[in-house]
Known about the structure:
alpha+beta
Amino acid sequence: MSSDIEKSIPPNQITRARQRDFTRFVWLKDITKGPINGNFVTYRFTRIPFGMSCSPFLLAASILTYMEKYPAKINKQMENNMYVDNLMFLTNIEEELPEMYLSSKAAAQKWGMNVRQYQSNSQKARQFIPEEDQAPDKPNKILGMIFDATHDTMTIGIPKPPEGKPTKRMLQSFLARIYDPMGVLSPLTVRLKQFLQSLWATKIGWKKTIPKDTIPIWESIKKEFQHTEYTTQRQLTDRYDYESAN
């Protein structure tokens, strides 16, 4: 079961005046006059600012602080399965999901936050959770991938490959835009990676068109990326044997 922290901006007051000095920012005394001499003023945030590059860390630190302040049984599960404002809940016992929903809602309320957009592959959980707290009844994005809770599938988007005679830079950029953290698309991307490796060996320039004799190889690889997305069943398994792998 997954969920989302709404607005995810905890109302943390910066109580110590000297700490507020680290949050200074420059603004205009009169917006209509623009940035001219004598029209600048310095302010300080009184609450922890968000919308900055360090905001994901500030959010995580704030939530962990609240967890210490308000102990709850569900806290450990949320701490171990939290990424920015996404929360995951894992269990092998389907009947535990409703309690996880209630506990996480109650815990977040103590933080001054609201957890919402719950989605689960469990029909029992979906029937228990109020409609206003459920994610829209359609595939939803989670951690960069599309999760269809009803059919329990994961979908990975595939960008459009470059046309014509690409440069090494264009091919590297294309590969970087394929977000596949679990390696599901490895059978597709391995040929592209090998091709890029061979291009590096030729020492051609970053912005140079790939050699003419490599164009047929690229065209063959490009045909494998005709689909815009790839959908697979979300699979969990304990069928592994590390001794055989070694």
